[in-house]
Amino acid sequence: MSVSFVVGNWKMNTTADAFIPFVQQLQQTGCISEALSAHVNVVICPPFTTLHAASPLPEGIYLGAQDCHEQPSGAFTGNISAGMLAALGCSYTIVGHSERRQYQHETNQVIGLKAMAALGAGIIPIICIGETLQERTGNKTLEVLENQIDGILSTLNVAMLPQCILAYEPVWAIGTGLSATAEQAEVVHAFIAQKISTSTDSTIPILYGGSVTNTNAAELFAQPNISGALVGGASLKVDVFSQIIIAATKK
Ligand code: PGA
After folding, report:
1. Cα 172 from Cα 133, distance rounded (Å)
2. pLDDT of residue 105
3. Quick one: which atom of ligand 1 is closest to the CA of 230?
4. Which of 20, 64, 135, 243 has the most CB atoms at less than 10 Å from its CB?
5. Widest CA span of the chain, in angstroms?
6. pLDDT digits (tens, 9 = 90+) for 168-180
7. How many angstroms is it from 101 CA to the middle of ligand 1?
8. 209 lines ligand 1 (CB under 6 A)
């Protein structure tokens, strides 16, 4: 059975004291034991300032970060390296989230370097790609995604790609309540899967992100090329997040 993923991106929300109670409540719903038996990896990516407080992590929940720097160490004030994340128990890190592309002006080349840095520290990068509303309405979605992947592969060694996770996150769907429909998402996921298998001869997990909730998760997970979800707002609510995890166990 293939492994699928439900990844919670807490963004700039919560303080360290909230983590363990959240995880305990999540466990109490029973979704973590179901995830374990169904081979669904549950990952929580809280702010950097919470990572130290995320232990002991119960079996079935993995820790992730929301970004890492592309260099292992040095004079980069305010940044965090992948090695530092590994030392705090992170197994995953998001790189190239559209909010970082927009507000920190991250390029595909930098995102490829960040993914390389993560892999070098033993962390699996969850690499985000996605089109804006203007690009979608201009019928440029697939072209934009292809360019993003090619740009990332200009600095990320293609031989390393099978060790990564991709997340398709249409920018217009993030935090808007306007999820892509399952059919819209599947068209893009199938395109990405085809491109990856042509470049690497392998398949990698491709997650969908953008207004995933307990009401649309099952339909999204039913699509053949959707391997899980990257969940923002809904990952902050135990009851909703647990229902998304349960939906993934039915895939
Ligand atoms: P959302 O965010 O689920 O709140 O739309 C998803 C994300 O930004 O990863």
Report:
1. 5
2. 97
3. 9
4. 64
5. 48
6. 999 999 999 988 9
7. 14
8. yes
Active-site position among 99, 131, 135, 169: 169
| Among 128, 223, 224, residue whose Cα is nearest residue 173 | 128
Q: Is the CB of 233 under 6 A from ligand 1?
A: yes
Tokens linked to 63: 């820790």
Q: Which of 198, 193, 142 is nearest to 170 (CA)?
A: 142
Nearest ligand 1 atom to alpha carbon 234? 3
Ligand 1 centroid to residue 56 C-alpha, Å: 26
Give the integer Cα–Cα distance in Å for 2 and 139. 32
Model's pTM, two decimal places? 0.97
Tell me if residue 198 falls in helix, strand or coil: helix
Q: What pLDDT digit, counting tens, does each position of 133-142 carry?
A: 999 999 999 9
Question: How confident is the chain (251 residues) per 10-residue block, as mean pLDDT?
Answer: 86 97 97 97 98 92 98 98 98 98 97 98 98 96 98 97 97 93 97 95 95 97 97 98 97 81
Q: How many angstroms does the Cα of residue 162 sit away from the middle of ligand 1?
A: 24
Residue of the CA atom closest to atom 1 of ligand 1? 232
DSSP assignments along 33-101, one per residue: HHHHHTTEEEEEE--HHHHTT--SPPTTEEEEES--BSSSSSS-TT--BHHHHHHTT--EEEES-HHHH
